[in-house]
Every structure is written in structure tokens, then in C-alpha cells.
Amino acid sequence: MKEVLSYKKKLKLLRNLLKKKDCNYYLLPRTDKFQNEFISEEDERVKWLTGFSGSFAFVIISLKQNIIFTDGRYIDQIKKEVDQKTFKILDINNKEPILWLKDKIQAKEKVLLDSWLFSCNKFNYLKKIIKEKKSKILLSKEILIDKIWRKKPNKIINKIFIRETKYSGIFFKNKIQHVKKILKDKKINSFFFSSPESISWLLNIRSNQIKYVPIVLSFLLLNLNEKSYFFSKKNKNLEKYFSSYFIIFDLQDLREILINFSITNKEIYLDPNKTPYFIENFFKTIGVKVKYSQDPCENLKLIKNPIEIKGFKSSHIRDGVSVCKFLFWLDEIIKKNKKVSEIITSKKLFEFRKKNKLFRGLSFETISSFGSNGSIIHYRVSTKTNKILKKNNLYLYDSGAQYLDGTTDMTRTICIGDNPTQEQKDRFTRVLKGNLGLSNYSFSDRTTGSVLDKIARRHLKKKKLDYPHGTGHGVGSYLSVHEGPISISKSSKTKFKKGMVLTNEPGFYKTNQYGIRIENILLVIKKKKLLGFEILTLVPIDIKLIDTKLLNIQEKNLLNIYHKKVFNKIFKYLNKKERKWLKEKTAPI
Fold first, then answer.
1. pLDDT band of 154, cuts 50, 70, 90
2. Quick check: 499 and 278 in contact, CB under 8 A?
């Protein structure tokens, strides 16, 4: 049923709840009970309260003010989506929410928060700040805002299934043995897993519970010397699959089973970055001592095994074919001067992908942005913002897919028509130079992501230009397209290992005019005694947008080698007209 409350009415109801609880501030991060980035519609509390649809936000409601924080990716978007008379918008890079609160809160004032929506580490950080200010934290037993958000979207029918070993590479029992050895070496007898991403990887299970990310919403209590407990939506297939390994319970049984666990166990380990504070607090209330240790699956899943790497390469060939067919179709439409919009192009790309073997959906909502919409980094097209693609401006599309054997994520910027401006060519070429430089860079296993980030930005920096997002993120194997904790960014401390998969996506954005981004997925490989990258993405780069005078001989060779690879891998799957088109698009420069 459609929600009819205005934003002012929602805020009034929320403040009434705050007053009833005698509190001064309510904190609401955009996440769910599992600390996920991609969340279901029923968990889009920030979107419901504020209108902001981005993937990162933090809201603070006081008795007098409404504040919403986001990062550089979303500043332009949030100003368009959120009523700035109702909410004050702040960039988290300029002021962190907790530090903002530290400056504002007075002694003896009270902060209310939902312990399900804060990780242990975030809660402990907040607790330290609040203690310094001699204020107080109150924990809501249930998520407070849900008391006023009554007409939530209908839940989808859950489908949980097994990802076969021919795609995962390693049987789940072997993974568990490996994890148990790690825990045993650390003298950990019981570990509570809160990350559905880790659990889905460990047990080779997937689902449709969250759009774009095929994780199973679940918890896992892994015991070394006795039965282990798995909490999720009950599923007959899982009961057979897990057989003697786990006792399966519904998520609603969590508290009762943990109480039973506490009868014979007085110690539990958990990852403070991944676990909601509710879990830690509950263990403590039932007399179980909580200790911290990193989720062992977090680093294990980053290193792709040979079967997963083979799947990544296969899925990128199929994905590249789909995107090339889409680009050929778009070129033909433009030549015929037919009207085509951002929504139509987004749907058409989906149609080409959908025909693919092993396709299981998109890996995120497609960014299909023309002209000024391209300057909104994480733009989402709607009927209100939908633009017609016209000649002589830029079209940026950022899109990816989930296949049983791999996950894809790519961005290309193309010129609609034949006459980009000199400025657009300059900016595009500088972004391309950064992309090529990073792809071809050799580095040691001690090199950090922040060092690699500088390589991608250096040619923009020469003109005092930059982009307000990271250069790369990890990518899962038929899991999250944003796989942490690895990254390439200004603050990244990631050290790379053979078998990791990341993106390379420098960009440039001119507010209200155009956006440029070039994104490929990279595989970390051995390069003699050093490390380097292999490009997995197989889609041509728009030659029309390149100012060849800005490229040196090595860069031209790198682009020509890449385009030759794209042609050789893709052409056999195209028809005669499409092959001719691809030959032109990958011609040496």
C-alpha cells in the first residue's frame, strides 16, 4: 500500500516518540540488521524518511534540527532528492556525524539509537564520545522508526539455493574445515558470523532476498567441538544439504537458541566491524563473555580460486558480447535520428544481458545518464529525470550483471554524435590515461591502495582536477559487486594479493553539464617478481573522445592491445554487421 504521510508528518511523529522516551537525538544510519550496503525495500528507512535514495547516508534527528550526511558520490543527487528546507545536508568528508554530534550535544542530554543498526565498533566509538560529553545513550529494543512506518512494501518470496561446486570451486565442507583450523589456531571455540556475505560464501548458498546481491540473510554460530547453528528462512533444500553439519533455525528463534547456548558456553567471538551491537549486548545480558576477532571469511573470499577466476573470465566474455550488441544497436538508433531515452537504453541493455547463459540479474541498478545527468555520480533515472539522448553530448552508462559463474561491473562514456568539445576530449583522455596507467602498473605486495589511487588521478591533477569517489572496490564471485574491505582510494590501506578482483574507475564530473567515467574489472596477477593486473572487462573505449596528442606511445600501444583483445574475444559471437562495427570501434589509433 502506498505511503501517504508527508515528510513533515513523519518527522513530527518521530519527534513525538523521542519526547515520550525523554531523548534529545535519534540516530539513523542507512543499513539493515545485517549491516548490509544493499538492502531490501522494507529496510529503506532513510529513503522513506527523507526521500534520499543513495546507498550511503546517516540521519540525525534532534528536537530542533534534521541533519542528513552523505559522501562525495551523492552530494549532487541528495540536493535534488531531499527538501533542503526540511533537512540540512552535510558532506561526511567535511564533518563526520558522530563528531558533529559531539559538538552539539550538551551534558545530560540523551541519544536514542537502534542497536540492530550499529556495528559493535561504531557503537563503541559513539559510546566513547557520549561519555566524554557526560551524556547518555538509550537503546531501542526494536527499530524505533518502524513504529511509525507501518505500510511497508510487500516482502518478496524467498528463494534460497545451492551454488554448485562447478561454479564455487570448493565444496562448503572444505571451506568450513579451513575456517575451523583458523579458529583453532587462534584458540577460538565458538564464533558468531553476522555477515550474510561471508556466510553465503562459506556455505556456497545464494538467494533472491536482496535485489542485486544474491546473499542469504542469515547468522551462523560455528562451534568447533559441538553442533553449529544456522539461522535463516527455513528451506528444505538446505536441511538436506547441510545434513549433520548444522542445526537450522528460523531467524525468529535467534534469542531463544542463544539463551540455550549460554547454558553450556560462557564465551563467544565475533567481528566488531560486522556484528550489530544488539548481538553483543544480548550475549552479555545472558552471561556470555564477548571477545573480538576478525571474520575469517572476509580475507578468504577475496582470493579467487582457479574455478572462480575461470568463471569471471567466462562471464565477462558473455557480458562483453551483450554490451557490444547494445552499443551497436544504440549507434544504429542515433544514425537514424530516432528518439531514445535514458530509460529505453537502460531497458535495452538489460534485454541483451537477459539472453545470456547463467544470467541471474543485475549487480546494481544501471546508471544510464545523458548530459547533465552524467555529472550525478550515482544517478538513478526516473520518469521525472529521464532525458532524450541528443547529438554532441556525452552518455555515461555504468552497469553490471550477476551470473552463476561471476559478477560484472563496467562503465563507459560515449559521445552521442561526432562532435565532442575540446574540453570533453581533454578530460576524457586524462581519465583514460589514469585508467591505462593503473591497469599497466607493476607493484609489490607491500604497495597500498592509496599509492595506486594516485596513479589514476595524476593526469587530472596536472590540471588541478579530481573526482570525489574512490578509484576501485573489490568484486565478489556471484556475490556483492562491492566486496570489502579491499579498495583503491585516497585513504586505502589495502595490500594486494594474487587472485583479488577489483575495479579501476577514474572519472571527471562537471556539475550540470556532463560526466566521464571509464571502469574495468581487474584481476591481480603475478608479474615476474611483482604483482600487476589483467583486465577482465571486454568493451571498447570510445575513440572519438580521445585527444591522441595527449597519449604517449606506450599508452597508445596499451589501448591498441586492449582493443585487439576485445575484438578477438567478442567478434565470433556477433553477426556480420556487428562485427564490422566492432572492427571500427577497436581500430588501432
1. confident
2. no
Q: In whole angstroms, what is the distance from residue 223 CA to residue 238 CA?
A: 19
Is the Cα torsion angle 47, 51, 53, 56 positive or negative in sign? negative
Cell of 65: 534540527
Mean pLDDT of 31-39: 96
Q: Which cell numbers in the block locate residue 53?
A: 535514495
496 neighbors 445 (Cβ within 8 angstroms): yes
Q: What is the CB neighbour count within 10 angstroms for residue 133?
A: 17
Are 368 and 344 in contact, with CB atoms under 8 Å apart?
no
pLDDT digits (tens, 9 = 90+) for 224-244: 988 899 999 878 778 888 878
What would the grid cell of residue 579 be?
562485427
364's grid cell: 546494481
Give the count of alpha carbons within 13 A of 54, CB side only: 25
Here the cell at position 503 is 575495479
Higher pLDDT, 345 or 418: 345
pTM over 0.90, yes/no: yes
Strand pairing category for 483-488 and 472-474? antiparallel
pLDDT at 1 over 50: no
Q: If you write DSSP's letter for every residue of 88-124 in order, what string do you get?
A: EEEETTTS-HHHHHHHH--TT-EEEEEGGGSBHHHHH
Q: What would the grid cell of residue 513 be? A: 553539464
**Which helix H or strand E contains 167, and what residues bound it?**
helix 165-168
Three-class secondary structure of residue 488 per DSSP: strand
